[in-house]
Amino acid sequence: MTETQKHAAAFRQIIKDKKQFLLLTHLDPDGDALGSACGLAYILKKMKKQVVIGLCESLPVRYEFLNRDESLRFLQHERINLSKYDAIIVLDASTPARLDKFENQIKSLGSEVCLVNIDHHGDNSRFGTLNIVDTDSASASQMIIELLGARALDVNSAWCLYAGIVHDTGSFRHGVNIKRAHEAAIHCLVFPVDSKQVYNRLFSLETEVALRLFSRALSRLNVAERGRIVYMYLVDEDYREFKAEPDAATGFVNRLVMLEGAEIVLFFNEAESNIIKVSLRSNIEFSVGDFASMFGGGGHVRAAGCRIEGIMEKVIERMVKALRLSLEIHDRRNEAKGQG
Ligand code: AMP
Ligand code: MN
Ligand code: MN
């Protein structure tokens, strides 16, 4: 048996044996975080299991479409007692720190508690009792399909898991092993999944407020290193002025990636006063995940993030300076490789 087959067997055994499941995912959940959690929740429900999805904040409106028949149960942190569940499954989160309010409780669990960690991040700390980490998978949602097989799916889980794959691959444009991502997605499209609707829900700017906010961010477009580094920012006053929700800027960074010549793209977003969430994207073989880890964050080669406390101007200055240096090192390594 290969390692992958062993993992799949162990995971299948757990979901067969246990009855009450708690599913958790990372802070500021994205389309893969919630797609994988909701998709797995529908699979478990189909198996007549009890399942709750634990969140730190309420479900973002953008992702309400994943709760297709409104039968999924979401509970906020304060209302969850971890010891009530037979198994806890953590999706798309590389470390307990990514679980925000659940971090300390997860860290203090005894080794007798069944804690499954399903993830595709390279910096995963293997904090579960069963760790299924596949860095060759483009999303956690894809992993659920591969681990449980196409036969586990129904129309609801197919919608959610397809959405997770579409999210993390930027609609099949990037990500590792894109062939595998397509192969998993095709299992979902056997069902009547409306791929156009999924795309629009995930990536379209559908509200006037979001468009105005995007226009504000664009008005602050900056380029450095002759266009190789591109960045923009929003401050908390912008949110107040437009009466925008904290998640209104979801996906803004992905629109900058299209700029010709842009190699590294950054979006500095002051969602809370003096807490700056930085989203990074890379168009080259420069790992923004490794770069973000120098600032306490993480992610993948092409997409990463971190949270920095401080004043916007100072944070931007510090990060762009560090990025210039890292790019210089990257260039030198590439030159050396070319010569060698
Ligand atoms: P985002 O820019 O929020 O879409 O995040 C892009 C990628 O970076 C995701 O795959 C996340 O897993 C990762 N990421 C975002 N923020 C953080 C953070 N504060 N710490 C570690 N990883 C992060
Ligand atoms: Mn994610
Ligand atoms: Mn993911």
Would you kindly provide a written description of the structure presented here, covering whatever features stand out?
By secondary structure, the protein is of the alpha/beta class. It folds into two domains: about 5-205, Alpha-Beta Complex (inorganic pyrophosphatase (n-terminal core)); about 210-340, Diaminopimelate Epimerase, Chain A, domain 1 (Roll), CATH 3.10.310. The chain is about 40% helix and about 20% strand. A six-stranded parallel β-sheet has the order 3-2-1-4-5-6, covered by helices on one side. The protein is globular, with a radius of gyration of 20 Å. One manganese (II) ion binds near residues 30, 32, 33 and 92.
Task: Considering the chains and any ligands shown, give keywords for the structure.
340 residues; binds manganese (II) ion; 40% helix; alpha/beta; binds adenosine monophosphate; Diaminopimelate Epimerase, Chain A, domain 1
- Which segments are poorly predicted (pLDDT under 50) over 5 or more consecutive residues? none
CATH level-3 fold name of the largest domain? inorganic pyrophosphatase (n-terminal core)
Radius of gyration: 20 Å
Please identify which CATH superfamily of the largest domain we are dealing with: inorganic pyrophosphatase (n-terminal core)
The level-1 CATH class of the largest domain: Alpha Beta
Helix content: 40-55%
Please state roughly what percent of the residues sit in beta strands, choosing from under 5%, 5-15%, 15-25%, 25-35%, 35-45% or over 45%.
Answer: 15-25%
Cofactors and ligands present? adenosine monophosphate, manganese (II) ion
Mean pLDDT: 95
Distance between the termini: 40 Å
**Structure class:** alpha/beta
Write the CATH architecture name of the largest domain: Alpha-Beta Complex
The major beta sheet can be summarized as:
6 strands, parallel
Principal-axes shape call = globular
Give me the count of strands.
12
Number of helices: 12
Biggest sheet: strand arrangement:
3-2-1-4-5-6
Query: What is the domain total for the residues?
Result: 2
H/E order of the elements? Answer: HEHEEEHEEHHHHHEEHHEEHEEH
